[in-house]
Amino acid sequence: MPSMLQVVGKQLKSHPALVPLFIFIGGGAAMSMVYLARLALKNPDVSWDRKNNPEPWNKLEPTQQYKLFTINMDYSKLKKDRPDF
Amino acid sequence: MSDQIQEKLKNYRTAPFDARFPNTNQTRNCFQNYLDFHRCNKALSAKDQDTAPCQWYQRVYKSLCPISWVQKWDDQLEAGNFPGKI
Q1: Using beta carbons and an 8 Å cutoff, which residues of B are at the interface with A?
Q2: Which of A66, A71, A62, A68 is nearest to A46 (CA)?
Q3: Where are the domains of chain A?
Q4: pLDDT in tens, B26-85
Q5: How far apart are CA B49 and CA A65, in angstroms?
Q6: Distance of residue A55 Cα from the nearest chain B Cα, in angstroms
Q7: Which residues of chain A have pLDDT under 50?
Q8: Which residues contact B24 (CB under 8 A, 6 or more apart)?
Q9: What is the spatial distance between Cα B82 and Cα B71, in angstroms, rounded to a whole number?
Q10: CB–CB of A85/B20 below 8 Å?
């Protein structure tokens, strides 16, 4: 593993124009991993521990937004309208 | 509190937006309201209260769920092998 990095480092020194390539590919990979981690940890449909956390979507408040982009949807105006029991 | 429920039941048009289920796939919304209706009935009748507020959940699941699913679950409830936790 470290020898591969040394080889790549030497190649980069002789072809410095390749650095932006690494930046963009690395950035893309990092964003994918972040999205997968968000899905695994924050998605209300995901339950890692079914005994202690059986229905995680019920923990969402009526005004809480999970989606990243919502067009034409103002979550702050929503109210809870289900009866309690 | 029950006046509010009566008011809402009287003005009911369709299932309102539920922040817990914001995407196109509303399967879980349907199942959750079906479960909530039966849980509400069970909880309120255990406390000897009027189960009228539970009608909200019934209206919502009747709006959302395909009739065949509701019939299947009702049959399973009667037979005693309904898979959900009530």
Answers
A1: 1, 5, 8, 16-17, 19-23, 28, 32, 36, 39-40, 43-44, 53-54, 56-57, 85
A2: A66
A3: 1-42, 47-85
A4: 999 999 999 999 998 998 888 888 888 888 889 999 999 999 999 999 999 999 999 988
A5: 34
A6: 10
A7: none
A8: none
A9: 12
A10: no
Q: Per the CB < 8 Å rule, is A60 touching B20?
A: yes
How many angstroms away from the CA of A62 is the closest CA of chain B?
5
- B-chain CB neighbours of A85 within 8 Å are 39-40, 43-44, 53-54
pLDDT of residue A52: 86
Exposed, middle or buried: residue B46 (CB in 10 Å: 0-12, 13-18, 19+)? exposed
pTM, full prediction: 0.81
**ipTM metric:** 0.72
> Given an 8 Å threshold on Cβ–Cβ distance, is B57 in contact with A82?
yes
